[in-house]
Automatic annotation (TrEMBL):
Domain spans labelled RSE1/DDB1/CPSF1 first beta-propeller: 47-464
Name of protein: Cleavage and polyadenylation specificity factor (CPSF) A subunit protein
Span of domain RSE1/DDB1/CPSF1 C-terminal: 1091-1345
UniProt subcellular location: Nucleus
GO cellular component: nucleus
Annotated Low complexity bias: 9-24
Pfam families, sorted: Beta-prop_RSE1_1st (PF10433), Beta-prop_RSE1_2nd (PF23726), CPSF_A (PF03178)
Residue ranges of the region described as Disordered: 1-24
Superkingdom field: Eukaryota
Record's keyword annotation contains Nucleus: yes
Length: 1393
């Protein structure tokens, strides 16, 4: 559960002061050696780079988002929706990102790389990294790293910008200033990716050779690109040409363009052409694809098309105005000569000869003179290009869409015609915010990424761009409030997101997002099973929904309304259905305890039904036995009995029109009772043939009939894969015995399979959910590996089998005995022993596996204590929680109206939700306008209080407003005076009521001098009362639903807005990612909360921080000073300053816990103060050991503070080891531990996205169960500038030492090491004192769960003999097996996922 801010502050407990001494003592013991684990629960959403390529396969159309600290592989589907495929942290900071396209001349080092593009990244590791996507591990892995500079990337070190040759033969990397390097790519078999390299200028020289002397690269590098050549007409060796746009320091000229040629034979770089101009500022140089020598130079106000085919004598062939006048593009004629810029610079850094322009146009008039900088820049309508993207696959007449700084999108087309070259500029295609990055992908879709707001996917249709879907971004998160969600019993967070004019309030929830469409009344008691059934195998949508109860079955039609059609379908209504499905087109099967019923529905309920008045039905009954299990597949029915144990294979045949028969084809006596049966709904034959043809390990040898294959789970316990053919009968293909032990070596009970599924994604494997809440993955052993003698086959549960009394069967009357062969895989015989690849615990209740479609590679919902989405394409076992309440049953429901529907049964109600692919983040958006700065949750009114600035309002630019958290509507607001800006606010207790204390600024300009001292400013302290104004007629919150509430009496639903629905309740909000409304709930207009001004006073400085103190005071800061204030006689209309404290620098933040006060200024960091009530004096008792520019701070207890700084680091400071007797103001706090995030945490709160495990002790090790700390109560949540959320979880000393040893091995193991080549220890140690304990990296440790059991054992067995290995705080003995580590990390994953 989340811990509210009130609980962590002194104002929440009236008797807090009385418990001070005891709490201090316990805090001293618990935090003297603080140990934390940092886990990212929401990755940063800021997209800085976006590229396309063929990363997963030569035919895939993939998009990669570069997000500074992570990379995300996505696709844009046919509907224009961005769907995430894989996202991974890079454990570093991405500086630039580009694609190295596959070249036919390359020879792949591995067949897995053949035809696939490579991702090239520059990062703060100082390395140039080449990454390839691994389909098996479902993530990028490094191919090689090239060291360019020391970690950190100063502006003079190479590591800022990338340029890749269009042919994939060359890569260039530059520094911010003065340096660049060029690399030759030669992917030869067995060789390195980088063949040769050269630095510019050379490391031992400071200048470059030109035609007439020497020059240097001294200035800021703005942009660069390769000038491609027609390589089909060139020899193997050719010299690449790189165009570099730069601004030279100390030069009169604003732009300089260098053409650099790398003479590979001489291994030297020459400047073959050099231009300079003092005209409009040039921003980008961009090559025209497939043009072999043309490039655009984008300047402020125009775009110049350059001809670099003769690199020694380039010219401009076209100028396009970007002033967006009616004449959009004008062809220009140019003089024959160009003005050459001298190659020699004088000592002052100024050219000795003035040059007029980069290019001289013959028809330039005075107003267009690029030398006239002031006049040019002030021209109305002058625009520049922010971002651009070329159309993919256009080889003849390239088209580019670009974004202007005004937010308008235009298209440029380059036409190579017989009469010459022409450039066309379109009218405005779309108007929005300026785009930071654009990407044109296949299908006519355009991904547009903008700053501090949601991006968007547009589609080019009929000459215009049309909006299709959002690219969600919650950055920056300026403030947050963590609140419990009472109905669904999990946490949600309200965040101030974005900046004006796109400021929003975001509701962020944990887990995968679902859109709640409806909820029925809680009338569905005793549901035992749910299924959806199609009428034909090829149907895209489901036709019927089957609900099974303890003594009843109901069949509902799937459509606009769910109508009871049990009688028309033919299912027996007075029995409990065990299983059902489609056995053939139009033929349904119901399995119940007494027998098997075959039904053919009538045409009245489905167009494919029989034209009769009643359905066609026939049944099969076992002799004197009761069925316990069953499954239905294509032309196959499998049922099992209990007491005695038999397995029956049933077939269906047509005797005449509308006349069918169910008959037994074979039955088998069982040694052990079956616990589950699963039949794949699609044939495996075609898939497995491709599986073998693609050189994958042979899971099933050729020659075996695999048309009918199914999987069973037994009470042995085991899982077994069985094939059946009418002529050969049943055959056991593979068996996996389930024998699990805990960390003490004791057998784990309850390992009977509850559900089992066959999956085919790159390889064939089996998933099994157990009755004790565990999840298992089995795989076939590799074909080339002999099964060792100690892996003996333990036998199947099948004893003997008998065919049916069918005279066509060749085995009539002959028992089939199943024998084992331990080396079956090597010889192509069966059965074989399955290998247990991974084991995970996802709860304590039985695990049900429900595929989201009939495909063998479909993702699944794993249903235990709560629902999880199991991603079948991922390596090992990868699962993420679904943002929905615990449920007992689930089934996919696919209809025209709801193609991605999922039906949950929870709390005796049916819940129809939709998996929302467009919501990569589980975030709801309320547009507020302006910039939301602060947010508080008012528990009494259940409203949000939001402070906004930069409002587009003539009367005020800042206010405080009350927001309905369900609809996002503004209910009331308090407007500040013109020119006044809100800075801080908090809720303070006054007697029995709560008031809102606000600090503002009355002065324009900055609050702080560069030295850290406070500017001379004014501010205001405001006290507001939140009053409840209730109408006597009605004061209740009313539920309202959309029109259309009537339906047939037999339906459990009513039609609501086109969907089937019954009564909507609090948990059935229908809201899209961008919808501000709440379909179903609104506050009555008579339910009014009003903000009333109670007190206002001018203060000598901006009031930047306020916070409650001791339940009856509050703290407020202004300039260097902070004050203890109170309300005399609990009168909210009066405020008295009781004491004052002063610091050396501007006070930025105040926080308190019991009597402890933490003051944060802009340089000295965190200062601890105590307040003496009797003397009314403030005393400083501790200070920060280092200078620190604090971003936010929270007190965990009276001795411990967690603080974030504006350098991207989080630290835990403590005074628990000190005694306050003889305290000195110079005594430093102890730096307990630290963690470099690489992102600025603007807001820190106590609390967590966390779930309480139903029986947490089952996941704990016996020796540490009593020492565990509740995750929520002591966790810290941090939201960042990049839109990420990280939780810092306290762990015990023993857990810390164990995980520290595991982390030390993960950071060096090839499968889990940082993919950009960062030294992990150096990375997390930045901005910290040497020798400080590091907070554990939960993202690094989480990779351990993505590995198979064998890989996990290999990681733990890795010796730490490298001199670069991180020094461990101690030398704990690693566990003999991986169970202890897995169980500990599973608890963290379960709690936070």
């Amino acid at each position: 559960m989340a811990v509210s801010e009130e609980e962590s502050s002194s104002s929440s407990t009236p008797g807090a002061a009385n418990n001070y001494s005891s709490s201090k003592q316990s805090a001293s013991n618990s935090n003297s050696a603080a140990c934390y684990l940092a886990k990212t629960v929401l990755t940063g959403s800021v997209v800085l780079q976006v590229v396309r390529g063929h990363f997963r396969s030569p035919s895939s159309s993939d998009v990669v988002f570069g997000k500074e600290t992570s990379i995300e592989l996505v696709i844009i589907d046919n509907d224009g929706i961005v769907q995430s495929i894989s996202e991974q942290p890079v454990f570093g900071t991405i500086k630039d990102l580009a694609v190295l396209p596959w070249n036919d001349r390359f020879q792949a080092q591995s067949q897995k790389l053949l035809g696939k593009d490579i991702l090239v990244i520059l990062s703060d590791s100082g390395k140039l990294s080449f990454l390839s996507f691994c389909n098996e591990m479902h993530r990028f892995f490094p191919l090689t790293h090239i060291q360019l500079s020391s970690p950190g990337n100063s502006r003079y070190q190479i590591g800022r910008m990338l340029a890749v040759d269009s042919s994939g033969c060359y890569v260039a990397a530059s520094a911010y200033e003065d340096k660049l390097a060029i690399f030759s790519i030669s992917m030869s078999a067995g060789g390195d990716i980088v063949d040769t390299r050269i630095f510019c200028p050379p490391e031992n020289e400071g200048s470059l050779k030109t035609a007439s002397g020497f020059t240097n690269v001294s200035g800021t590098i703005w942009s660069m690109c390769f000038i491609s050549k027609d390589y089909h007409q060139l020899s193997e060796e050719h010299n690449p040409v790189l165009a570099v746009l730069m601004n030279r320091r100390g030069s009169f000229y604003r732009n300089e363009l260098l053409l650099l040629e790398w003479n590979i034979a001489e291994q030297a770089v020459h400047v073959i052409y050099q231009f300079a101009e003092a005209g409009p500022l040039a921003h980008h140089i961009v090559e025209v694809p497939n043009s072999h020598g043309f490039a655009f130079l984008f300047r402020a106000g125009d775009a110049l098309l350059m001809d670099f085919r003769d690199a020694h004598n380039p010219c401009c062939v076209y100028r396009t105005s970007l002033n967006f006048t009616p004449t959009l593009a004008e062809e220009q004629s140019f003089v024959e000569h160009t003005i050459r810029i001298p190659d020699i610079m004088d000592e002052e850094g100024i050219y000795s000869v003035a040059a007029s322009a980069l290019l001289e146009l013959s028809d330039i008039n005075k107003n267009d003179d690029p030398m006239n900088v002031d006049d040019y820049s002030s021209k109305p309508g002058s625009n520049y290009v922010c971002s651009w993207s070329w159309e993919p696959g256009n080889l003849n007449n390239p088209r580019m869409i670009f974004s202007a700084d005004s937010g308008e999108l235009y298209m440029i087309q380059v036409l190579f015609e017989s009469d010459g070259l022409r450039v066309n500029l379109s009218d405005c295609l779309y108007k929005g915010l300026p785009s930071k990055a654009l990407l044109w992908v296949e299908g006519g879709f355009l991904a547009a990424v903008v700053d501090m707001a949601d991006g968007m996917v547009l589609k080019l249709e009929e000459g215009l761009l049309h909006y299709r879907s959002p690219i969600q971004s919650v950055a920056p998160i300026l403030d947050m409030s963590v609140v419990d969600y009472p109905d669904e019993k999990h946490d949600q967070m309200f965040a101030c997101s974005g900046m004006a004019p796109e400021g929003t309030l975001r509701v962020i929830r944990s887990g995968i997002s679902v859109e709640k469409l409806l909820k029925t009344s809680p009338i569905y008691h005793g549901v035992t099973g749910t299924w959806t059934v199609k009428m034909k195998v090829s149907d895209p949508y489901h036709s019927f929904l089957v609900l099974s109860f303890v003594e009843e079955t109901r069949v509902l039609s799937v459509g606009v309304s769910f109508t009871d059609v049990t009688d028309s379908v033919g299912f027996q209504p007075d029995v409990c259905t065990l299983a059902c499905g489609l056995v053939d087109d139009g033929v349904l099967v119901q399995i119940h305890q007494c027998g098997v019923r075959l039904c053919v529905p009538v045409r009245a309920v489905h167009p494919e039904g029989v034209p009769l008045s009643s359905p066609v039905c026939t049944s099969w009954f076992p002799d004197s036995m009761t069925l316990s299990l069953g499954a239905v597949g294509r032309n196959l029915i499998v049922v099992a009995t209990s007491s005695p144990y038999f397995l029956f294979i049933l077939g269906v045949r047509s005797l005449s029109a509308y006349h069918y028969e169910v008959y037994p084809m074979q039955y088998v006596k069982l040694q052990n009772e079956l616990s589950c049966i699963s039949i794949p709904q699609k044939s495996l034959e075609h898939s497995l043939m491709n599986y073998a043809d693609n050189n994958h390990p042979m899971a099933i040898p050729a020659g075996v009939n695999i048309d009918n294959i199914f999987v069973i789970g037994t009470h042995k316990p085991s899982v077994e894969v069985v094939s059946f053919s009418p002529d050969k009968g049943m055959k056991i293909l593979a068996t996996g015995v389930i024998s699990l032990t805990n960390t003490l070596g004791t057998a784990i009970s309850g390992c009977v399979p509850q559900d089992v599924r066959l999956v085919l994604v790159d390889r064939l494997y089996i998933l099994s959910g157990l009755r004790n809440g565990m999840l298992l993955r089995f795989e076939w052993p590799v074909a080339s590996t002999e099964v060792s003698s100690h892996h003996k086959f333990v036998g199947s549960c099948l004893v003997d089998s008998h065919t049916s009394l069918n005279p066509t069967s060749p085995n009539y009357g002959v028992p089939l005995i199943f024998t084992s062969n331990p080396s079956g895989m090597a010889k192509g015989n069966f059965p074989v022993n399955l290998e247990l690849i991974a084991v995970r615990r996802i709860g304590i209740t039985p695990v049900f596996l429900v595929p989201l479609s009939d495909s063998l590679d479909a993702d699944m919902i794993a249903l235990s204590d709560r629902p999880w989405l199991l991603q079948t394409a991922r390596h090992s076992l990868s699962y993420t929680s679904i943002s929905f309440q615990p449920s007992t049953h689930v089934t996919p429901v696919c209809s025209i109206e709801c193609p991605r529907g999922v039906l949950f049964v929870a709390e005796n109600s049916l819940h129809l939700v939709e998996m929302v692919p467009s919501k990569r983040l589980n975030v709801q958006k309320f547009h507020l306008g302006g910039t939301p700065r602060k947010v508080l949750y008012h528990s009494e009114s259940k409203l949000l209080i939001v402070m906004r600035t930069e409002l587009d309002n003539e009367s005020c630019s800042s206010d405080v407003c009350c927001i309905d958290p369900l609809s996002g509507s503004v209910l009331s607001s308090f407007k500040f005076d013109p020119g006044e800006t809100g800075k801080c606010m908090d809720v303070v207790k006054v007697g029995d009521e709560h008031v809102l204390v606000i600090g503002t600024s009355l002065s324009a300009g900055p609050a702080i001098m560069p030295s850290g001292e406070a500017e001379s400013t004014k501010g205001r302290l405001v006290v507001l009362c939140l009053e409840h104004m209730r109408n006597s007629e009605s004061s209740a919150i009313k539920l309202c639903s959309k029109a259309g509430s009537s339906s047939q009496r037999s339906s459990p639903f009513c039609d609501v807005g086109g969907y089937a629905a019954e009564q909507l309740s609090n948990s059935s909000l229908c809201s899209s990612p961008d919808d501000n409304s709440s379909d179903g709930i609104k506050l009555e207009e008579t339910e009014i909360w009003h903000l009333r001004l109670a007190y206002s006073s001018i203060w000598p400085g901006m009031v930047l921080a306020v916070c409650p103190y001791l339940g009856r005071y509050f703290l407020a800061s202004a300039g260097y000073s902070f004050y203890v204030c109170g309300f005399p006689n609990d009168n909210s209309h009066r405020v008295r300053r009781l004491a004052v404290g002063r610091t050396r620098f501007m006070v930025m933040n105040l926080t308190a816990y019991f009597t402890r006060i933490a003051v944060c200024d802009c340089r000295d960091g965190v200062l601890f103060y105590s307040y003496h009530e009797d003397a009314r004096k403030l005393e400083q008792v501790y200070c920060d050991p280092v200078q620190r520019l604090v971003a936010d701070c929270v007190l965990m207890d009276v001795n411990t503070a967690v603080v974030s700084d504006r350098m991207g680091s989080v630290a835990v400071l403590s005074c628990a080891n000190h005694l306050e007797d003889n305290a000195s103001p110079e005594r430093n706090l102890t730096l307990s531990c630290s963690y470099y995030m690489g992102d600025i945490a603007l807001s820190i709160k106590k609390g967590s996205f966390s779930y309480k495990l139903p029986a947490d002790d089952m996941l704990r090790d016996c020796d540490t169960a009593s020492d565990n700390i509740n995750l929520s109560c002591n966790s810290v949540m941090a939201s960042t500038l990049l839109g990420s959320i990280t939780i810092f979880i306290p762990v015990t000393r023993e857990e810390y030492e164990l995980l520290e040893a595991v982390q030390a091995r993960l950071v060096v193991h090839p499968l889990t090491a940082p993919i950009l080549g960062n030294d992990h220890n150096e990375l997390r140690s930045r901005e910290s004192l040497a020798g400080t304990r590091k907070i554990l990296d939960g993202d690094m440790l989480a990779q351990f769960l993505e590995l198979t059991s064998v890989q996990q054992e290999a990681v733990l067995a890795l010796p730490l003999s490298s001199p670069n290995t991180v020094m461990l705080s101690s030398k704990p003995s690693l566990p003999n097996n991986v169970n202890q580590v897995v169980r500990l990390l599973e608890r963290v994953h379960y709690a936070l996922n």
